[in-house]
Amino acid sequence: MLIETLKPLIAQHAYVVVFGIVALESAGVPLPGETALVLAAVFAGATGLIDIKLVILLAAAGAILGDNLGFMAGRRYGLPLLLNYGHRIGLHDDRIKLGQYLFAHHGAKIVFFGRFIALLRIFAAFLAGVNRYHWGQFLYYNASGGIVWALVFGLGGYAFGEAFEHFAGPIGRITLGLALVGAAALWWLIHTQENKLIARAVEAYPGPLRGDEWTTAPPVNPSPPDPAAGRD
Questions:
Q1: Which long-range contacts (CB under 8 A, 24 or more apart) does 29-37 make?
Q2: Residues 129/27, Cβ–Cβ less than 8 Å
Q3: SS3 readout for 143-204
Q4: Confidence of residue 222 (pLDDT cuts 50, 70, 90)
Q5: CA–CA dist 194, 191 (Å, integer)
Q6: In this structure, are residues 175 and 152 in contact, taking their beta carbons and an 8 Å threshold?
Q7: How far is it, in rounded angstroms, from Cα 116 to Cα 172?
Q8: Whole-angstrom Cα distance, residue 128 to residue 134?
Q9: What angle do CA 110, 138, 57 make, to 5 degrees?
Q10: What whole-number distance in Å separates Cα of residue 86 and Cα of residue 75?
Q11: Staple partner for 21: which of 36, 137, 177, 214, CB 3.0–4.6 Å?
Q12: Handedness of CA 53, 13, 71, 95 (dihedral sign)
């Protein structure tokens, strides 16, 4: 009886809840965006009171919007904080360049696959902004990941109902475990090869690490001067 009473209420607010929770989680607020999407999809499949196509569309839109807000926050506030106060925790300019160098080479993987991993789903966009990842590339991989994620979990919940919700939990924990193993391997690589990687980062990004114009795109070498220039 209670469930029957709540159905119209759920149907009325499901779209706003899915969009809002997914957008806030993507922007960096620790909320259960994936769970909200799956539950809404299960409800759509079980009752037909809400449109699964709209659920998926709003989940993807919330993911893209929230990630872009997180990206802008990281770009606007994250890097300046590191530049001004990073030295207090051992993050001098060379190490900041190292982080940006690594993100420039592996950022696409982080942005796309981060959508499917619990912790990265919250922080990937902010880290992309902090590391001055190119916004055009970020938008492409972010939108691709958000759309694929919404389709997989939306259609999965709609087609398989509560069974998919139970299936999604272990998969999420497995991907999180793999991400932690990968992070540990990356930490070991950086720890053992730090000086060499820093040298590469400094070579790729020479000059001061200041100013809004600085991005992860390696600077283009100027053309050599024309030997004939200056001749009468």
A1: 29/122, 30/122, 33/59, 33/62, 33/63, 33/121, 34/118, 34/121, 34/149, 34/153, 34/168, 34/172, 37/150, 37/153, 37/154, 37/157
A2: no
A3: HHHHHHHHHHHHHHHHHHCHHHHHHHHHHHHHHHHHHHHHHHHHHHHHHHHHHHHHHHHHHH
A4: very low
A5: 5
A6: no
A7: 8
A8: 8
A9: 95
A10: 15
A11: 36
A12: negative
Q: Is 28 left (phi over 0), alpha (psi -120 to 50) or beta?
A: left
Question: How does pLDDT run across 68-111, given as a tens digit for each residue?
Answer: 999 999 888 887 777 777 767 666 777 777 767 777 777 888 88
Coil, helix or strand at residue 220: coil
29 CB contacts (<8 Å, ≥6 apart)?
A: 122
Most confident option among 64-68, 86-90, 128-132: 64-68
Residue with the two structure tokens 């300046």 = 80
Nearest CA-CA partner of 67 in 32, 14, 27 = 27
